[in-house]
Amino acid sequence: MPRQTPLSDIRNIGIIAHVDAGKTTTTERILYYTGRKHTIIDVHETKDLKTSTTTDYLEQEQKRGITIQSAAVSAFWRDKKINVIDTPGHVDFTIEVNRSLRVLDGAVVVFDGVAGVEPQSETNWRLADNYNVPRMCYVNKMDRSGANFRRCVDMIRTRLGARPLCVQVPLGSEDNFRGMVDLVEMKAYVWFSDDKDAKPEVWEVNEDELISKLNLTVKEDLDNIASIRALRTELVDTCLEQDEVAMEAYLESGEEPSADTLRACLRKGTIGGAFNPVLCGSSYKNKGVTQVLDAVVDYLPSPVDVEAIKTVDEDGNPNGERKSSDDEPFSALAFKVINDTYGSLTFIRVYSGVLTKGMSIMNSTRGKREKIGRMVEMFAKEPHPLEEARAGDIVALVSLTETETGDTLCDSSAPVILERMRFPEPVISVSVEPKTRGEQEKFSIALGKMVRADPSLRLETDRETGQTILRGMGELHLEVTLDRMRTEFGVEGNMGKPQVAYRETITKSVEYTYTHKKQTGGSGQFAEVKIIFEPRERGEGFEFKDETVGGSVPREYVPSVGKGLEVQKEEGVMAGYPTVDFRARLVDGKYHDVDSNALTFEIAAKACFREGLKLAGPILLEPVMKVEVVTPEDYLGDVIGDINRRRGMVNGQLERGANIAVEAHVPLNEMFGYIGQLRGMTSGRASYTMEFSHYEPVPRNVAEEIVAGRNAKAA
Description:
By secondary structure, the chain is of the alpha+beta class. Helix content is 28%, strand content 31%. The protein has an 8-stranded antiparallel sheet.
């Protein structure tokens, strides 16, 4: 079957933002204006569970009014196919943004016109930086009280280190928000109705007429009108940096370039990361969404406009690339696995070649083969059967048995491994168990499927208590996981008190020699290792180096020493927490021709670790969270005092509309149940967001309590 949509006419984009900036509302309007839906459902209308927005269809999403898992939809606009992924904005579900950005070619970053750049906006922006995703900005909610376009643009510049380039200027704000001036066409788009089918009037740009006709009196609105000519000049100058021929023509004739020339330059600069176009609007009031769609088509890249996907060897080192083309051998990246009524669905982004039903392909990450049965294109939760998928497509494969998130699928005759995703380490853990003992097996199967679908979850068994431990990114993350097991698998569970993922490390170097000697009847056991343990910088992890000379430890036994240390470091010497950020240098050793083997050297390495690290100044590390509390000024003193009592450090304060945003670093252990106490002290008017920042040493008195509690539990 020939290709239906040319590769250059595809846009794979994500809608990313902080929670409650209006991503899902914007996605609903995109689907309505592109003809994929005939009604609009707003997020606040879904709390009774009788209806849902297209992309927020999980019960948990409807109850909470937030996006929890990313959902894919597709639509056509100006004959271009736009694959849209609506992503969560809550920090606990950053994994969804991470894996979506990995396979997308561009992104629309939505900002709240009142709050501007918020913590999760920053996190998502950095993720997009990591994957070199071209992006444009959309300042939403310009109709809300306190909305300020210029402040939001300044925050994009200062807090994100970006180069925002205004391609629109708002006309009015708050209740008097009427539309925007398009600086490319130099036309004003003006709405006098909030109706979803209202068409804007198109006016010529005359500043005095705009002020009088729209009755603009607020200083910020008048400043925006006054800035139109300066912003137009900045737009022209910045765009022409991308096109030397157009620049020379402009300098020679003095005639401004055409709108088509400016759009071509904007496209080139956006894709190259030179700047980020900034648009404005109010999705809820149905103003500006079609202009966002035009900008997606005009400025964001197709699969052929971005760099070819990098290929890597088994150790993750780059070794080539695979171009986005139907003519190349098939390759795809599995970026998401979900449990559905149809079985497990594996979402893949096809980077090259063609995939057809019935094909047998290779999972090159795991060295396994997969047979393609059903293949579907998902419209949120609705599957549409497909016969084939081509380069640039995002599709779902039904019931793959061997494939997990981050795996590469490829043609077995031309195997490659595509660059893998990076997933965050969990920072919080809880014990989980089924509500009724008879459901243990069903509960375990459901839990395994949830962990397979979400790489930011980890499942462990506590060796001392035998309890099942679920680790994740936050209290809400773990709570939603258990609730989804109820709705998706029909099994309920109980959750224990959250536990912090502490770590151990060392503060000084120590050289330690350990001799493992065991003599029984027949051949004995013998191995001796001399290892220097050294601290490393925070976040550098564990490193093992072999520095032996003269065969004091035979080559074939050195990996066993490394293996012994790898295993033993998971149980630290202070309180049994994993040990991080240290180097182990094997400098000497002894062996016996008969009594030494791989196992004896592994045993010696483990014992050397246990004894040596006690002398290396071991300390406990705790996860420290980056916290932002948004509060009315009346409660500022109480909020800061409470943060200090929680061993927090206040880093600064920012204006956030009519409120104050307090930025701080606070240990995770002090943040459990914080939302209830915060609401109590601020009459329910404050809110907070929290994300993992770094690990930091625990104060001695707190560490002693933790170690004592851990030892008592072990006893």
